[in-house]
Amino acid sequence: MKRRTAHWLGAGNREGREGSAGVTARNEVNGGESEPFWERRLGRDDLAAVAGVRAGLRRFLAHWGAPGRAETAELLTSELVTNALVHTDGGAVVTAVLGGGPPAVVKGLLRVEVRDTLPRRPVLRASDAGPPAREGAARTDEGRCAGEGAATSGRGLLLVQALADDWGVRAHGTGKAVWFELAAEER
Fold first, then answer.
1. Judging by DSSP bridges, how do beta strands 175-182 and 109-116 pair with one another?
2. Residues near 15 by Cβ (< 8 Å), separated by ≥ 6?
């Protein structure tokens, strides 16, 4: 069964090498095992870079997961990156880590994180005609998530919530990191 919960975590994070646009390995403090790692920095308002992020992640996940899992990761990453670039004044940093050491390239747990400079939490929105809001979401009088029924945007986090095995938000420096996890095989 999928865990579709959002978490707001406080400080404390796992930092990898910064500034790398390709696949690297990083040493984790907890056990020293090397994990496949990909990172990309994006400039402010660089929406054209979203396609490059998808392409880079596609290369990183070339041999990972069951059919369709890498495509799901691309979609969710694209949504989080677009949110970071549209709703903040700074750039963003995207990282992807395959947990489980070198064999993770094929079957590890993928964690993607998009860091930005805005500390405000993102808002999970749905159309008024959508399903009832989940616990903790802003509700309208009808018990649905707050949002505009005819809106053409604003549903990226709903995709993350629906498709990720787990996701959340944590404080990061002067901003926040929005993350999701996907197992190589659908749960």
1. antiparallel
2. none
Distances in Å between the alpha carbon of 119 and those of 19, 134, 178?
A: 22, 22, 11
* CA pair distance 60, 54, nearest whole angstrom: 10
pTM of the model: 0.73
Tell me if 66 sits within 8 A of 183, measured CB to CB: no
Burial degree of 92 (CB within 10 A; 0-12, 13-18, 19+): buried
Share in percent of the chain as helix, strand, coil (round to 5): 25, 25, 50
Question: Tens digit of pLDDT for each residue in 50-101?
Answer: 999 999 999 999 999 999 999 999 999 999 999 999 888 888 999 999 998 8
| Type of residue at 96 | A
